[in-house]
């Protein structure tokens, strides 16, 4: 498109939107291979996972596996789920805010975290934190295989775009694409977990732990595509290796089982899921402020 019609602002923005869409969908695709849910043989899943996350996204399969498997084993459990290790930028759930408030820990104005989330969370997670953390992890662990895969992404990208935008313009375009992708990624991944129970280890059984840490988003063709079928987060966490196209088939059985045993099975609209992220951050911030001032 840029080769044919030039690099004016409208086409550049359209190019960035298309690239961000491709990156987001590649993210859901690598997630499938990372969970060994595509091929029957694990070896092929691992190999294609490196291709997709390395060559198509410029990231590391080993970095992703190390973080993501911990998340699935203990979702929303402090000190065990790296996805809720937010380096004291936010306080989450109902236990951590009170703990920080009582100890007079004020690394951030947590009573306003539902507001600065829009400036820190969606815009910066992928272009700043993930990019740095991925490179640091590969270099510090001397993971030369994953680093080589990631370098093929950057070589291909700059080979395509430096002749069109120059070095600085190509870097700016890449950063903007990551910025757009980061918004997509953060809202989709957090709507299923952040508003749910977040606490220290309770030593619960598998079913109870997963149900308390996850919720579903209503099924629709758009929601399935937009979230990479992770709108069926409950089923995904109960059966991590299940191919994504089977979630909708097993969901009625899981829901019936939960109803039979009186267990919560939450389903929301996508907009409600987004709104609950902000509401939960505000509720946690209010708990922190009350404990900070009065306990």
From TrEMBL:
Ranges where the Fatty acid desaturase domain occurs: 8-267
Topology relative to the membrane: Multi-pass membrane protein
Keyword Oxidoreductase among record annotations: yes
Subcellular compartments: Membrane
Primary location: membrane
Leader sequence residues: 1-26
UniProt xrefs under Pfam families: FA_desaturase
Biological source species: Solea senegalensis (Senegalese sole)
Keyword line: Fatty acid biosynthesis, Fatty acid metabolism, Lipid biosynthesis, Lipid metabolism, Membrane, Oxidoreductase, Signal, Transmembrane, Transmembrane helix
Gene Ontology MF: a single term: oxidoreductase activity, acting on paired donors, with oxidation of a pair of donors resulting in the reduction of molecular oxygen to two molecules of water
Gene Ontology terms describing biological process: fatty acid biosynthetic process
Ranges in coiled-coil conformation: none
Membrane spanning stretches: 116-136, 157-180
Name under which the protein is recorded: Fatty acid desaturase 2-like
Cellular component aspect of the GO annotation: membrane
